[in-house]
Structures are given as C-alpha cells and as structure tokens.
C-alpha cells in the first residue's frame, strides 16, 4: 500500500513538474514575441530647404541607409522601435558655373555634395484598433551625427591659347556642416512575408528640425539649410 501511495505521489509530482515547465516555456515564448530585431535598409530622396539664393540652388539627391532595428511591444497596439545605422545623402548645385565650397573666382560646370552620418531613430509603433490589415503608424525622432562631407566639382578651364580642358576636384567639406542634426519622423508600416521571413515595409517622411550647416554657405543672402527626406525602409526580423 505504501509503495502504491509512493507511486501516486511520484506521479503527481512529475505531472506538476511537467505543467510548471510548460507554463514557464509559454511565458518565454510570449516574452520572445514581445521583442524583435534584425537588419534594415533605407532608400529614398532628400531635399535641402533654405539653400536657394542668387548663387546657390541645391537640389536633393538619392538617399541610402543601412543598419539594424530593435522593437519591443509594450501593449497590443503600442511598440517602441529603435534603429541605428549609416546614412548617406547629398545634393546637386543647379546654379551653372558656381562652386559650392570653393573661392568665388573658381567656377565649375557641375558641383555636388555628399554627407555621411550615423543615425539613431526612436519611434512609437502604433497599431490601429480597427483592423489587423491596416498599416501601422510610426511617429518619432531621429538624431544624426555627421562625421564626413565632401564637395565634388568638375571644372572646364581655358588656357591662353584657347585650349579647353576639364579637371575634377574633391574637397573635404566636413567643417561646413554641424556635427549633429535632429529630425522628426512620421510614416506608415506594413508587415509582409518574404521567403519565410517576417518583413516590414514602411514609407516615411523625415523633416529636419535643426539646420545642418555651420553658416549659410558663402552667400550672405542664403538661409540656413535644413534636410528633409522621403524614403522606404525594409526591415527583416531574424
């Protein structure tokens, strides 16, 4: 009889241990679903606001970024998303015969600027309560640390005997830009499945809050320059 009771007791203890371990496993699975992370890329175009003057007319070029993201779900409809990565953007000077960062007496046929920065982004990821099929809303801010910029100029020079030749120069223009930039971000995100990976595609508008130039270029009539962007972000959850 004692052996029978011992077997029942052992069985109950084993059953309780199994139930307890399954409960812990379920909690771990739920916790892991609250956290997601992975790589991402950004492609788009940017515009430079405030650079129009009698000497300078900067128009945006393509934008490219690469990095990673971390997302933590706080509630069913709210998550916090953090991103960090590399960002490359630029602009073309449309005023013919004007060099952006050279001396006034040096005239170039084409001139462009490239700006490289490290970008960190913090977003609120909001899910609309009406339907699971609707895009989510992204609202937040980004902080950029500009670590390098250059100005590329292509010159057409004429010699005394009317011989024309071209040269191209690249000037380090990092000191022409502020080290930091703050921008606001708003966008729409939609989850898709690509080759078995949970993927998020979002479209965003990024508006510069602080200017990116240390001074209004070399024209006294130019305003401080702000950088705005429209881009797509593709994120893959690992």
Architecture overview:
It contains one helix and ten strands. It is mainly beta. The protein has two domains: 32 residues; 203 residues, Porin (Beta Barrel). The protein has an eight-stranded antiparallel β-barrel. Strand 8 and strand 9 form a beta hairpin.
- The coarse silhouette is elongated
CATH topology of the largest domain: Porin
> Main sheet?
8 strands, antiparallel, barrel
- Rounded mean pLDDT is 77
Features:
single chain, mainly beta, Porin, eight-stranded antiparallel barrel, 238 residues
Architecture blueprint of SSEs:
Blueprint: H1 2-33, E1 35-49, E2 58-60, E3 62-75, E4 78-93, E5 110-126, E6 136-158, E7 164-172, E8 180-194, E9 197-208, E10 226-236
Antiparallel strand pairs: 1-3, 1-10, 2-4, 3-4, 4-5, 5-6, 6-7, 6-8, 8-9, 9-10
Summarize the structure.
This protein is mainly beta.
